[in-house]
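Support case: zinc ion complex. Customer-provided input:
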Amino acid sequence: MSDFLVSARKYRPKTFDRVIGQDAISLTLKSAIKQNQLAQSFLFCGPRGVGKTSLARILAKTVNCENIDAEINACDKCVSCKSFNENSSFNVHELDAASNNSVDDIRNLVDQVRFAPQVGKFNIYIIDEVHMLSQSAFNAFLKTLEEPPSHAKFILATTEKHKIIPTILSRCQIFDFKRVSNEDIVKNLKYVADNENVSVEDDALFLIAEKSDGAMRDSLSLFDRLVSVSDDKLLYNHVIDHLNILDYDYYFKITNQLILNDISSLIVTFDEIINNGFDGQNFINGLSDHLRNLLLCQDEQTVSLLSKNESLKQRYLDQAKKTEAKLLVRALKLTNECDLQYKLSNNKRLLVEICLMQVSSIGHEDDVKKKDKKFIVSNPLNNNKKVDVVNKDNKSHEDVNTYKSEKKIDETPNEQTVDKHEGVDDLENNIRAKTISILDSLNQEKNKNESLEKIIALRSDDFSQEIFYEKWKKMIESFKENEKSNLALALGINKPVLLDDFKIEIELSNSSQVELINQEKQDILIFLKNELNNDLIDLNTKVAELKKDNTPYTNSDKYKRMYEDNKYLAKLGQKLGLDPDY
Ligand SMILES: [Zn+2]
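Agent response - structure generated as follows:
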């Protein structure tokens, strides 16, 4: 790239047809010029870098050209065109409202409006970022906009249409500019690359297009930046390195592991990604994009929204076949939650890992249910029938229970720590079970030295009863403050009991309280885990047994109660020879 001139300027479109991605607007303006029905004021709205100012300038130049051709292109030969090309035209006045937004700036401009142009037909006033004008500047401008002289035309441009007051909106012909599609950006970049003798890989250009988010100007700046450091060759790997983009391959790989519920590989792959210097949140966002793309592939109507090059599109379509829309939606919900929680989390890495495990469990919940059923069979309270069958083998209830329980533990030795009490949801169980078993196998792999905690950084601080009760009170207060008074009330009724292995048990008065607490269990656990720096904490609820009702009803009951409670009454009874049992 000799004689370096930034591409965004060098390749700024000079005719309507060269404005990329805004065909409808170009067409409308061209036909208005042709039919001589041009509005007096225009409002160009849309994101940055999509061609608003370029199109405003083309319009300004074209309407002043003396020999417009049949295709509505300016001739580039007349006096007006020449002065325009040399940036010395007196017909075009540009004001950047971002930096010149005072009343005086606008008054200067308004003062010029009444003078008719010396050359050409129109004076064109282009006001960029018009939403930045101060309120008083807006007011000063309004009068002119209401009754402009016929030789004046106004083109207002803004990235924030919602900030434009209705009185302005109603006086302008409004054009909404679209983001430029990735395909169009790639096409244009290719055109530039050909002209600059830069050899490019399509994939590299697609990455630039994606990174530019529909803004042509940004894509050209990025292109310049990358070409300047890459010896006139733009390769995919090169772009990935320089833009710090995670390779698509990683997302395909991770997604395959998610589909297979292969948690150990997931954790290892994520570790690799982190070690390559990528940020967890970027990764999660990238994964969300990837899942969204797979979702788009699920339906013929949406597949056209997938803006990728052909070979990549095929890879998405292939992977999409292995998934289902409803599962992808659930996965997206989880990745989105992870993204929202990321900033607040103390252990960001764990947060992402948990998210991956949750996503990976989607669609595998049935596996857990089968396991749970096995357990229920072993509990005589839950299923007497089965126990009776086994009972024929001359075993007592208790024996059967123990026997079955042991057997169960034998079958799945890694699940001993998994609590099977009611109310723990299957997913959570699955994740915990998976985590622990996966950690075990990882431990074996890594020669036993790395503890569970280290690999997924589980917090496991010890704490005293006193500290626990203190935090419990703090939690109740916090729920009260957050307008969860019912929950605070339920949690405050009985003192919780801290059992072994950081299990907490709380007795509640009735089943609706149990239900309430189970609903909010996630929040309760998050609070306690964070306050006590311990991820092993778990909460169990149970309904308190009804105490025996001792209220005395009959007269003799009442007398007996009085007699028991009051020793003087007892003495009086003795003196009078009364028998309390009478
Ligand atoms: Zn001309």
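Residues 65-67, 74-75, 77-78, 80-81 surround zinc ion (CB under 6 Å).

Case will auto-close in a few days if no follow-up is received.
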